[in-house]
Amino acid sequence: MTTQFAPETSLSSLERASLAYQTLVGLREADIKYCLWKSFDRLKEGIRGATDFDILMEKEQRQLVFNTLRQNGWCEVLSEPWRRFPDVHDFLQYDPVHKKFIHFHVHFRLVMGEKLIKSLSLPLESLYLKTAVEGEGIFYAMPELEMCVFILRLSLKVSLRDYARVIRRRDPRRIYLNLIPEFEHIHPRCDRDLLKALLEDPAFSFIDGNLVLETFDDIHSLNYSRRRQIKRCIAPYRRYGTLMRFWVHLSRSSQKKSFGLGKVLPKQGLSFAFCGPDGSGKTTLVDSIENLLRRHFKVARFYMGGNNSSRDLPRWIFSIGFRKLFLGIRKLCRILGFQPGVDRIERLYFGYTNYLMAKEKQNRYRRGKSEAERGAIVLYERFPLFQGLGGDGGSLSGSACFEKNERKCYDQIGAPDIIFVLQVDSENAIERKPDHLPEVIRKKTTAFERFIEKNSSNSNLVIIDANASMDFILETALDPINAKLKA
Predict the structure, then answer these.
(1) Which ranges of the chain have pLDDT less than 50?
(2) Which of 151, 184, 213, 239 gives the lowest tally of CB atoms within 10 Å of its CB?
């Protein structure tokens, strides 16, 4: 059976050129059977990366599906623990057309039902794939089948909040207020005779077809008693009993609070460092990349600079406890004209401060490494590249008794997967940072230029022209990030 898209879902040339559309067309060309089994009303949103795709495929083709997606650059990720369900896999890839990550939920089993639990698995996979209809090269669920399953899901979607709305408004018709838009999207595309014929298929032998047909005619006819009837019919296909569902919901709610949002890479996460002189746009770039990645991935961000606003507790305590004492002793030495005393106290104070700063960076690197080992994507801002002005790798200008330990801290900071170095002209940097001293900015840009000249052959290093627009800088940075994800 074939049909055409309804006018409101016809795809534009830009949407046909998108990653999602090209992948779906390519699946069929690879002889892979698939079906968009729900939320077809949000197809365009999925193509734009605003929502995900729920794609049903044959279990027998599981390995072929995985190989095809991986060969086409799709990255398999693990959902949050409270969002993981049997035979459901997640794949992501960045779409440069819409500048968003596209998310495929690949189902080898129909998983649906209550929020967080998804206890219902109806044995309709073969029927979905057998009756899938085609429009513009994409296969999606037969509207009548989508309507049948939607009505069965209705019995599980009604919550205490819906009952509270009915009681508050004294209107029983408000029970399905949040679900009517989906019903009204599917309903006009359905043929009642086809729906009736579909319900006579042996796959629907577990349900009384009249319950579905009467609800199709009037959604509000599905009252409490009829919802109970449907629940009894689908009970054999629910993974948990009543008590178990309560505990699963409690457990997943706890996991949701503790783990939060963000998918992880299956084996090992990735780490990316961003470096450059003041005025190169490091923070803006990291903000943009973090905002883009955090919509899908578990992202951990660490500031590796050493300014006073980012002090950890040990350096904060030392500064509060000893800064005034240091200033007082130094002033007294100057009044007495005792210059060796001034030099000595400065070496001690700044030497220990530099050591504490190095220790902070080492600890943040270790925390980032731990996050990466758990599959997260780690972003390091102002990663320590080299010793000296602007390199954030330690000045080593303090007391010799601290320099050895300071160097040990930096030596234990390993290289991330990619180091992005933003190269900017000194005059552009000065213009962007009018509150900074121009001569200091010039020294920093010169130091980075020397570093780039010495390390240009390093494959771990990505040099970005930071004189360009932020959109160009972001796209330039995303290319190697996506290459790492695909690999």
Answers:
(1) 1-8
(2) 184
